[in-house]
Specification:
9-stranded antiparallel beta sheet; 4 helices; single chain; 8-stranded antiparallel beta sheet; elongated; alpha+beta
């Protein structure tokens, strides 16, 4: 090996060492305790979470319970066990696996102020706020974490960015209508295409209410009926209506009857405007004080289809003398 090769090799070794110092997790003597100093889970008043798609969720402690903050400022029951588990994981984040101290690496690791996987703000009872960013996940149940206002990025174990759920469905029970589909006995629908009715006959099979002789396409009808009885929402909206919902003159009104031990009960689902950006409809269930949004997949059939759409079409039969299908 000549002198030039030795020099180049030495430069390469130095570069590798520098890269390891900057980017590889390592224990630090100066800081090895909790990343969030003086943090106590029982003193957390609220948790706010944002993601790169501009989704936002805030949950607050309401006495002994956790509540999801609605867009009108109201509160909706949240999953308290999940919130408590998350806070315990946050409290366990240690400052002993330093990844980098350079601000230029924040964007690459998705922990910069304008480019992050999750931004989390924890507000304490005394008004103190802990703000940090959760970024990329190198694997093994680890995630890069950076405290706001600091350059240091740490590798946190036992945690993932998705633990900081930034959509309501992570924190609330999405069951908006919670009846059993097999207890349905009738459904009536009024929408912009007209009216239609369906009833379960004595043999337990569905048929058109006013035209039992017409064949009902069960492959289309039954999923739509099941969605009514067990409707899921994407988010609760609050207890006050809004002109944007268009529920004063809904696109569709679905009236359905279910069999109970005490007799039959009749309920109503109103379907309002469609939010094309979210691919969801505004809805209001007669038994819930809350307005909500539900995915188009669950309610669009009732908002847009007519009676004719549910009539089963006869299977075409080959004409007489036609050659048999070779398949």
């Amino acid at each position: 090996m000549n002198r030039l090769q030795q020099i180049l090799l030495a430069i390469l070794v130095v570069q590798i060492v520098v890269t390891g110092v900057v980017y590889m997790p390592k224990a630090t003597a100066a800081q090895s305790g909790p990343l969030l100093a003086n943090f106590k889970t029982e003193d957390v008043k609220s948790i706010s979470m944002d993601d790169y798609d501009k989704n936002h969720v805030t949950i607050v402690r309401d006495g002994k319970d956790w509540k999801y903050v609605l867009q009108d400022g109201g509160l909706y029951p949240a999953d308290g066990a999940k919130a408590d588990t998350l806070l315990k994981k946050v409290a366990d984040i240690k400052a002993n696996r330093l990844v980098t101290k350079t601000a230029t690496s924040h964007k690459q690791l998705k922990v910069s102020e304008n480019d992050f996987v999750r931004k989390v703000v924890l507000e304490m009872n005394d008004g103190t706020k802990y703000t940090f960013y959760a970024g990329t996940q190198p694997g093994g149940g680890t995630v890069h974490i950076r405290m706001d206002g600091q350059n240091e990025v740490y590798l946190a174990g036992g945690l993932e960015s998705n633990d900081f759920g930034s959509t309501p469905a992570i924190w609330v029970d999405t069951a908006y209508i919670n009846e059993k589909s097999d207890t349905l006995t009738s459904i009536s629908v009024k929408n912009t295409k007209g009216t239609m009715g369906f009833v379960k006959n004595a043999s337990g099979k569905w048929a058109f209410k006013d035209a039992p002789d017409k064949p009902l396409d069960l492959d289309k009808f039954e999923p739509a009926a099941n969605h009514v009885a067990e409707l899921r929402m994407t988010t609760p909206l609050g207890q006050k209506s809004d002109p944007a919902y268009q529920l004063d003159s809904p696109q569709a009104v679905v009236t359905f009857t279910v069999k109970k031990d005490s007799g039959e009960k009749t309920y109503t689902l109103q379907i309002g405007a469609k939010d094309t950006q979210r691919d969801a409809y505004y809805v209001k269930y007669s038994e819930s004080p809350y307005y909500a949004m539900s995915e188009s997949f669950f309610v669009e059939d009732w908002a847009t289809k007519s009676k004719e759409d549910f009539i089963a079409q006869p299977t075409p039969t080959p004409a007489a003398g036609a050659p048999a299908d070779p398949g």
